[in-house]
Amino acid sequence: MKSFSQKVYDIVKQIPPGKVLTYQDVAKLAGSPKASRAVGSAMKNNPDESSLHSRENLLKGIHKSIIPCHRVVGSNGAMHGFAFGGESVKIEILKKEGVVFKGDKVDLNLSRWKK
DNA sequence: CATTTGACAGGAA
DNA sequence: CTTCCTGCCAAAT
Fold first, then answer.
1. Active-site pick, A8, A30, A43, A69
2. Is residue A113 within 8 Å of residue A22, measured between CB atoms?
3. Closest residue to C12 by CA to C1' distance?
4. Distance A114 CA to B5 C1' (A)
5. Whole-model pTM above 0.85?
6. Residue A22: left (phi > 0), alpha (psi -120 to 50), or beta?
7. Measured CA angle at A105 (ends A99, A108), to 5 deg
8. Lower Cβ count inside 10 Å, N or C end of chain A?
């Protein structure tokens, strides 16, 4: 049985380019609609490219998991803490992938994955 | 086993 | 529209 965070990673990895998901949705898909917070906690343990080389993750078996954290946003379409170079950079990337932006926030009505 | 923490969400002021 | 407060959950210590 995968732990909650593992499920979260699995789900986030399946988010297609040009689409985003809110923490709430991820939590729901992971099995706990109210665990949006826990999702964030799991994300900070985030086995992304940066921590990919971390020995810790290798020991945990999380090494081939590249989590597109930039495709996970808050319920209002804004991002909170993820920054692998700066929020602005993240926005650029998302735009490039086809995510529609509404000012400095993501337009969830258009770019929300499976609605 | 109990406490603390955190990349959240939603409502109220 | 922005800021603060409260509720909720899983993981780490």
1. A69
2. no
3. A41
4. 31
5. yes
6. beta
7. 55
8. N
